[in-house]
Design a protein that fits this description.
globular, alpha/beta, Uracil-DNA Glycosylase, subunit E, 8 helices, six-stranded mixed beta sheet, 6 strands
């Protein structure tokens, strides 16, 4: 299977530790179900993308290595990040996320369509607990735990991070465990705020999935309010 080259990316080179972790993530083949699914999708493709070359590999984090705000999603979308090679890029969820990041001052443009589209993040980093596209967007507990060390190592590299925004209950649960939320921690809800034992903050938002955005469960003002709160907490 052919796949996109990392050299096609338009963002500035990463610091060595980030680049090394990224290379390790991209080469990962530890979960047979996810490897089979991501590669099957990349071969069969969606009809509207049939002339495109799919990424078809685990997807690394993206953004500003000096980020003070870290966004934690769920996993790559089959025809989004699994196609383009960048988190939340090339699908409706990404349309919502990056438009909000642009409105709230974290992104230089409101769209994210490909790894060479000129998008830059300032003060923000985007990642996920699971790096391969899972069938029906539902990774297993075993797959989550197998991939978890990568997120742990990535968060450790983001030494300037002060606020973490979890998109959805899955990301919130993983982040709360890794980052050690003060107990009893708030239940997942849009706008929930959980203090961490080291004084930093975990915020929760409904996920930017079409299930939430198409139904009005998540609106643009609701999403913007979370990122504006994150900015205020992170930059004071």
């Amino acid at each position: 299977m052919q796949s996109l080259s990392p050299s096609a990316r338009s963002e500035p080179p990463l610091p060595p530790a980030f680049a090394a972790l990224e290379a390790e993530v991209e080469a990962r083949r530890a979960c047979p179900r996810l490897v089979a699914w991501r590669e099957r999708v990349a071969e069969e493709k969606r009809a509207s993308f049939r002339h495109e070359e799919y990424w078809g590999r685990p997807v690394p984090g993206f953004g500003d290595p000096a980020a003070r705000v870290v966004v934690i999603g769920l996993a790559p979308a089959a025809h989004g990040a699994n196609r383009t090679g960048r988190m939340f890029t090339g699908d409706r969820s990404g349309d919502w996320l990056y438009a909000s990041l642009h409105r709230t001052g974290f992104a230089n443009q409101p769209t994210s369509t490909s790894i060479d589209d000129g998008l830059r993040l300032d003060g923000a980093w985007i990642t996920a607990p699971v790096r391969c596209a899972p069938p029906q967007n539902k990774p297993t507990v075993e797959e989550r735990d197998t991939c978890r060390p990568f997120l742990d190592r990535e968060l450790a590299l983001l030494t300037e991070a002060r606020v973490f925004v979890a998109l959805g209950a899955f990301g919130y649960g993983v982040a709360a465990g890794l980052l050690r939320a003060v107990r009893p921690r708030p239940k997942f809800a849009h706008g929930a705020e959980a203090p961490l034992v080291d004084g930093r903050t975990l915020l929760a938002s409904f996920h930017v999935s079409q299930q939430n955005t198409f139904t009005g469960k998540l609106t643009e003002p609701m999403l913007d309010s979370v990122f504006l709160k994150a900015r205020a907490l992170a930059f004071g």
